[in-house]
Specification:
This protein is an all-alpha fold and 170 residues long. The protein has helices at 12-37, 46-77, 100-127, 138-168. The longest helix has 32 residues, at 46-77.
Length: 170
């Protein structure tokens, strides 16, 4: 008798956490960084920004935007069916199981990095709030809550994914 595997849907709280994380990564992070990547010194010291931008700041910011987009997709993959089985339009892997440990480990590592970076940024802001840098220190005040939502949401979705992925393989 063949056993039929059933996928356990993500709980509502995990879905909300994943979507909050994905929105924070895409809508919260990308627009401002894309403006900077295009060379617009919004909330920045124009002279310092131009020098930094000329030394590779633009490509760096485009890479950060691409990574934020990937982090948004990562968050959603933890609560969507395509986080368990590759969709049929995926070349070479269509219908195969997604490597669950790899997805969970990646999401956990990214969330730890985001939360660590947030703690470091908050500490730096409290220790040295000044306008001597390229960007206004108020950008960090905007970024801290956004990174908290991003990191905590990703972490919650990852732990939910771990619990569901283990159950669905029995």
């Amino acid at each position: 008798m063949a056993s039929e595997r059933t996928e356990v849907p993500a709980p509502r709280w995990a879905t909300r956490a994943a979507y909050a994380s994905a929105l924070s990564a895409t809508i919260g992070f990308i627009p401002l960084h894309a403006v900077w990547a295009l060379g617009v010194p919004l909330w920045a010291d124009e002279g310092k920004f131009r020098d930094w931008y000329a030394q590779g700041g633009g490509p760096y910011l485009f890479v950060l935007c691409a990574m934020a987009m990937l982090a948004g997709v990562l968050a959603l993959s933890l609560v969507r069916p395509w986080g368990l089985v590759f969709p049929r339009w995926s070349p070479l892997v269509s219908g195969r199981r997604v490597p669950r440990r790899t997805l969970f480990t990646t999401a956990s590592a990214v969330s730890v990095f985001l939360l660590g970076y947030t703690a470091w940024a908050a500490w730096r802001l409290a220790a040295d709030f000044n306008d001597d840098g390229i960007f206004s220190p108020w950008i960090v005040v905007y970024g801290i809550p956004q990174f908290l939502v991003w990191g905590i949401g990703l972490s919650l979705a990852a732990w939910s994914y771990r619990a569901r992925a283990c159950r669905s393989t029995r």
